[in-house]
């Protein structure tokens, strides 16, 4: 998500009931990591290796997570936490499966790296929310 | 999902590593409840009421959940549990928002009912997995 | 989509600017065919056969088509026609690829059948719009 | 999509039956424009203005288009052309609706700009394919 888009998003768009608005730079980084992970997983799934079903699941979850962060008015702290946990778990599953053949497939290596980055970004969001 | 489709799905398609195959009738009911909830939420979101962002989030999560149950080879018990929890939490959020105007909008009432049915179906899956 | 949901959708939800409202039974049949095709393609894609990328593309397009029919306020006759054409073309591509191994895979046969049914339902919508 | 990801995609991933491989820089630009448009439309749809249903339709179509370009093994020239036409038409519809209130909403202005950029990128792909 580019800076221009973040600039026009109002504070209301970034807020959930009962929560202070999230740090915009952290959210932007998390949305970007989700988008990159969806793309990496989509490419990886076309290789017809045994990681493909996990890659497809992870691509869909990352897209759903990214969109939810763009529609925070429709989230609560509880549903946000649960969605972050699901995204982290799905990235973990996909990363584990891709790492099994990362040596022979540079696409699987790239996919595992994108999953790791997305997990880390979601965990940072989770920590920030827990501390708020 | 019709009975014909369930009939051609192999046991391998229904299984996760480290887990016995799920009960097919329970999974079919859960996939159907997710599909119905995605549709109800999508219709409800076009009303431009304040539940719309939650409805869009819930539609995406229910579609992601349904697809994940069709790609169980790419799930682990841990990621499946986390995804079910996220779907339950998102349905709860959407149901709560729609119930606030269920009296004046029959579409919101229908959406809240679909969210409730999807939550119940996901909870049944969750209980069955925890007992396995 | 069940009859209850169709019952609560207003005529406004079924209409595009500059077009009479569509026949509700025909739309319901088309949305159902798209939903069934998305599910069949999603299952088929997990088989890791060479049709899988076409199945994934078709699943996404059918979901997008179904949702667009639930959000007709955001469509014009021109964009509706183009979307129907894309869905028809994508179903054709997926059906052709799945038919190449329908003899050895009952899942591919089921997927090809679902693609054919979705194509036919989209073509019926297209004809009705062209005649309106 | 970053350069690293493009770098690991093989020529096979970029090719359709009966077509030379597409220009990778042009495809990368088109995938990026689709991703940016999906994000802009998703944000715009949360404003609850009358463009919202068109924005949601456009977000879904742009995501489907982007993914199809990452799964070219599952496309034919005919289905690719039809998908590009649908994406162009959907961006046009969304842009037209958002432009009606671009003066009062900077988010609608941003969304219309993203739709225009996505249309242009899809048209460039279309022209290149027609010339091949």
From TrEMBL, chains A, B, C, D:
Gene3D superfamilies per UniProt: 1.20.1270.360
InterPro entries reported for this sequence: Csp_YhjQ
A Pfam family annotated for this UniProt entry: Csp
Lineage: Bacteria, Bacillati, Actinomycetota, Actinomycetes, Micrococcales
Organism (species): Microbacterium telephonicum
UniProt protein name: Four-helix bundle copper-binding protein
């Amino acid at each position: 998500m580019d800076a221009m888009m973040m600039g026009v998003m109002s504070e209301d768009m970034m807020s959930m009931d009962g929560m202070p608005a999230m740090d915009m730079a952290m959210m932007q980084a998390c949305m970007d990591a989700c988008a990159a992970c969806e793309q990496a997983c989509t490419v990886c799934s076309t290789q017809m290796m045994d990681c493909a079903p996990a890659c497809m699941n992870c691509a869909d979850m990352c897209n759903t997570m990214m969109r939810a962060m763009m529609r925070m008015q429709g989230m609560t702290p509880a549903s946000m936490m649960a969605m972050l946990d699901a995204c982290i778990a799905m990235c973990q599953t996909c990363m584990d499966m891709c790492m099994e053949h990362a040596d022979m497939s540079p696409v699987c290596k790239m996919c595992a790296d994108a999953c790791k980055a997305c997990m880390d970004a979601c965990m940072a969001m989770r920590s920030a929310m827990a501390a708020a």
